[in-house]
Amino acid sequence: MTVHIGMAGQDEIRTCARLIAEAMRDDPVVHQIVRGDRNRTNRLTGLYTAVLRAGALSHGVIDVARAESGGPIIGVAAWEGPHGSASVWRQLIEAPRYLRAIGLRHVPAALRAVGALGTHRLDVRHWYLADMAVSSEARGLGVGSALLAHRLEAVDAEAVPAYLEATTRASRRLYERHGFEKVAAIGLAPGVSATAMTRSPRRSGRRGDERGNS
Q: What are the distances in angstroms from CA 204 to CA 153, 175, 200, 213?
């Protein structure tokens, strides 16, 4: 399968958020942040819309994969870069979406989970893979690998490390194949944990064309 990689436009953010929401709907780690099943996919879509706007769209890049040029999005990788952070104003703008997704009474628990996930973030300049998801019909076809290889080439060209939190064994194995190594397990609840992972830059990396194909 040929995978075409490009960058998401602003008008595609909600489409990207919906794809991530559908992929992460039953993820145990995400359940520690957004509780309950009522209207879950729509609430998660709102949450990821806010996360993408305040994060990767603001100070990073959102890579999207398509099976054909101009076709529907079948994969998303949202990276927050080392060149800045979301402004307080941007966070305030997105706050209503966060609240609608999480629910006011669950905010303290969600903040604890998010805080725990951030415990092992690197204290040096790095790229952070905030979210990555592949549509159900495209899983197992190499889309996730194509997204990772595309962006990691550019990350290597900057000679900075990368960081992420893997929420499943399958995703951890995928990241390990691309050079990520376990830093620590992050316990969130009995039987629920994520894996903090880092990747050192590869000297052989060459800057990729952000709008090219992979």
A: 9, 19, 12, 19
* C-alpha span between 80 and 60 (Å, rounded): 4
Task: Give the Å distances, CA to CA, from 87 to 41, 55, 90, 153, 189.
Answer: 27, 10, 5, 28, 31
Strands 73-80 and 60-66: antiparallel
CA angle 30, 185, 187 (to 5 degrees): 55
Using one digit for the tens of pLDDT, what is the confidence trace for 26-67?
Answer: 999 999 999 999 999 999 999 999 999 999 999 999 999 999
Render pLDDT for 86-116 as a digit per residue (tens, 0 to 9): 666 677 788 999 999 999 999 999 999 999 9
This prediction has a pTM of 0.90
DSSP 193-205: EEEEEEEPPPTT-
Give me the residue label for tokens 């209207």.
39
The residue ranking higher by pLDDT, 212 or 193, is 193
Placement of tokens 């991530």 in the chain: 20
